[in-house]
Amino acid sequence: MTLTLTVGDLTIHRIIEAEGRFLPALEMLAGLTPELLAENRHWLQPHALDPDDVFKLCFQSYVVRTPHHTILVDSCIGNDKPRGRAEWSMKTDDTYLRALKAAGFAVEDIDYVMCTHLHVDHVGWNTRLESGRWVPTFPNARYIFGKQEHDHWAALHATKPNPVYGDSVLPVIEANKADLVNNDHQLGDHVRLLATPGHTPGHVAICFGAKGDDAVMSGDLMHTPLQTRYPELSANFDTDKAQAAATRRSFLERYCDTRTLCCTAHFPSPSVGRITRWGDGFTCDAVAG
User: What is the per-residue pLDDT for 3?
Assistant: First the structure.
């Protein structure tokens, strides 16, 4: 499945690998109470919350075509990889590559792969298995990793081997396809990184546009629309929950009531919207492709 948006001189394609139930709301968000969930259930269901109070999430990449480059942001889950979540482990389906093809792209067409961070569901298609070896999926691409983020996971991997780093990041580095960059890195006149720490130490958002931010890929700065309404609600798997909450509010203030398209990693379809104010919080008003 693919959806396409055009803004400024950018064309943005959503490449969806999976969408559906993820985790119970009360397990996923620190500080979420049954009372607060009940107060917001009416607008969350059925789009973002199922009848059993399980959040619905989308797992996707964005392919952004600028006047200069074709850039893939966050490479989803991947195939043939041992993972802790059963439906992600040792996948063999063609959903992702078929969706990429349906959007009009071959793996050879991607100039850059950019990762907001290096979690399992954002790096999986960085590599694929060929003759028993992990090789870069996108053979003509440079892979852009934040140095701070990379060094964090590389240090952990050196202490205790991490299969995600080992099969989806390290092979790219060993193939000399990776560029480790600062969190304020710019790629030409259309692409800029924005430091957004908290979910992970080196998490970044990725901003696109020649004359300001026409679009921003928010990564795992937020996972569900409830976190726009209540930015203080951090995910239990955020590395630094307090930092994540502060970063999230700062990000939402930055883009509130602007023309910038906020392209979220995990909000249910259509996943893309513009940030507006909602009381003490915010909302991401959906923009359909």
Answer: 83
